[in-house]
Amino acid sequence: SFAGNKDGERRPAGDEGRQSDAELIHHMDEVNDELIKKISHIKAQPQRHFRVERSQPAAVPLTYESGPAEVRAWLEAKAFSPRIVENLGILTGPQLFSLNKDELKKVCGEEGIRVYSQLTVQKAVLEKQPGGSELEELISKFHSKTQRRLEGDS
Questions:
Q1: Boundaries of every domain in the chain
Q2: Alpha carbon of 103 to those of 33, 34, 112: distances in Å?
Q3: Quick one: which of 59, 74, 81, 133 has the most CB atoms within 10 Å?
Q4: Which run of H or E residues covers position 148?
Q5: d(Cα 31, Cα 25) in Å, to the nearest integer?
Q6: How many Cβ atoms from other residues are within 10 Å of residue 61's Cβ?
Q7: In 3D, which of 34, 35, 9 has the Cα closest to residue 22?
């Protein structure tokens, strides 16, 4: 069934509450004008130069020989939150290096991913240093003992 409107147009019954095409177009034009104003306002504003704070190399580098004081200093130098410094600052270097990403996420929440990332970078730095670390020496001794055992058993 069709209902007539005041202009004599025929529309499906129940359409009386809907906006006419002209009203819709007018409303869309208003929205577009407002968007253009907002966009041009954003472009007209001076560009802000954001300064990204990068953590400085720690004054006390984190190593496999680091005690809790050095771990705490390293965490602070890397600009971790006070909560992270409190939670992880009681560990030694070897204890901190032994934590995996999931363990760090459990202890530190989302910031744990950043802790893990920084630890991974620190491990890489230690591995590149000449002379090697105590851990590398221990691993090397372990491998040579294991190799000798294997050769002796065959």
A1: 68-128
A2: 52, 50, 8
A3: 74
A4: helix 134-153
A5: 10
A6: 16
A7: 9
CA distance 71 to 92: 6
pLDDT in tens, 102-149: 999 998 998 999 999 999 999 988 888 765 556 666 776 777 777 777
Helix runs in 6-133, H state only: 21-44, 68-77, 82-88, 93-98, 101-108, 111-128
Domain 68-128: top CATH class: mainly alpha
Quickly tell me which residue has 């300064």 as its tokens: 51
Largest CA distance in the chain: 105
Backbone angles phi, psi at 3, to 5 degrees: -115, 145
Instruction: Determine which helix (DSSP H) or strand (DSSP E) holds 142, and give its type and residue range.
Output: helix 134-153
Tens of pLDDT along 48-91? 666 655 555 545 689 999 999 999 999 999 999 999 999 999 99
- Cα 25 to Cα 12, 30, 34, distances in angstroms: 20, 9, 14
Query: Please, which contacts does 140-148 make with residues 24 or more away whose CB atoms are closer than 8 Å?
Result: none
